[in-house]
């Protein structure tokens, strides 16, 4: 899932559980019309991924692993990394409030309808609640 700094969902993709989280970033359609900085956790660190995203106009910002050489990071990027907690909040809201985590769907169509309605519910919830800070 890709969100902006206000917690609005820009794009999302469903993948099987055995697919690496970085796989959707390698597909051109998923990051279409996305530019600027992309904050991610330490699992997204990788020279090839960073280079590919940079060529597409996206700067990948992550914390450094403990065994990595410390590199200088701007204060703005450090503050931006604090906003990464927003996506965890949205994931929690989708699971607890919108009940997106439901494993007993009887059909693929039911799964898609439940998932899309949960995302629509989150979008409606954002419009009537104060902005996330």
Could you characterize what this model shows?
The chain is mainly alpha-helical and 133 residues long. Helix content is 41%, strand content 10%. It contains five helices and four strands, in the order ββαβαβααα. A two-stranded antiparallel ribbon has the order 1-2. A two-stranded parallel sheet has the order 3-4. It starts with a strand and ends in a 5-residue tail after the last helix. The mean pLDDT is 79.
Strand content: 5-15%
Structural class: mainly alpha
* Unreliable spans: none
**Biggest sheet: strands, sense, closure?**
2 strands, antiparallel
Shape: globular
Strand arrangement across the biggest beta sheet: 1-2
Radius of gyration: 16 Å
Number of strands: 4
Calculate the mean pLDDT score and round it. 79
User: Counting H and I runs of at least 4 residues, what is the number of helices?
Assistant: 5
Question: How many angstroms does the end-to-end distance come to?
Answer: 19 Å
The protein's oligomeric status is single chain
Helix content: 40-55%
What string gives the helices and strands in order?
Answer: EEHEHEHHH
Summarize it.
The chain is mainly alpha-helical and 133 residues long. The protein has 5 helices and 4 strands.
């Amino acid at each position: 899932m890709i969100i902006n700094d206000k917690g609005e969902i820009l794009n999302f993709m469903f993948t099987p559980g055995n697919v690496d989280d970085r796989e959707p970033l390698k597909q051109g359609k998923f990051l279409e019309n996305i530019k600027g900085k992309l904050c991610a956790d330490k699992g997204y660190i990788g020279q090839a991924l960073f280079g590919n995203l940079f060529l597409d106009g996206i700067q990948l910002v992550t914390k450094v692993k403990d065994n990595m050489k410390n590199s200088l990071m701007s204060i703005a990027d450090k503050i931006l990394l604090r906003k990464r907690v927003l996506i965890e909040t949205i994931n929690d809201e989708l699971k607890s409030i919108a009940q997106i985590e439901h494993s007993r769907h009887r059909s693929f169509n039911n799964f898609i309808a439940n998932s899309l309605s949960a995302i629509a519910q989150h979008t409606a919830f954002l419009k009537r609640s104060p902005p996330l800070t």
